[in-house]
Amino acid sequence: MRHASMLTAAILFVAGSATAGPLEDGTAAQKKGDYAIALEAFRPLAEQGNADAQLMVGVMFVKGQGVSADLNVAQNWFKRAAENPEASKETRTDATYNRDAISRKLKEWANADAAAAARQQAAEAAAARQLEASRAVEAAARASKELDDIRWENEKRKASLMEQADRDRREQHRQLDSYLERSRADQAQRDSNYYELRSRAQSRGGWNLHSR
Description:
Layout: H1 4-7, H2 22-32, H3 35-47, H4 51-63, H5 71-82, H6 89-204
């Protein structure tokens, strides 16, 4: 179990008034590192209500000796030993100390995990807000660019319209000048024709023109 190795130094390992037989065999096997044999000796006795064996099994679950370390299982065995009416004073004291030590550690770790989870959530929330703000800035930048593009297009369209209007005005002036030029030419031609007719009439003496 996570953190288990941090707690083993605080767990008392006291054989107490170990009785002869399987308990002593288990204790000897445990001291030699034969944890599987030790557990085979302790567990049946613990299940039968032997407080010393219950204490031993609890310690083995704390240290991960022959089993996967599991503080919750260890705490259960310590609790059974501490509340065992047949436990010696020394065994009950050891079991109670170990049970309470594990309880305190589990609470500390739970609080630490909760605080870490809260920090993680806060960090994730801050990251989400930052991402949202970044996206908002990007969206605003895109909107601003689109608006600038629209304005630029409008300016180009306006300039194009003004240029076209200027060309139209110049064309109108050209056409008007051309019309006036033709009108003056026509008027000059008429005047020339008039004076020619008048001159002929005067030379013949038959016309008396008072007006054009």
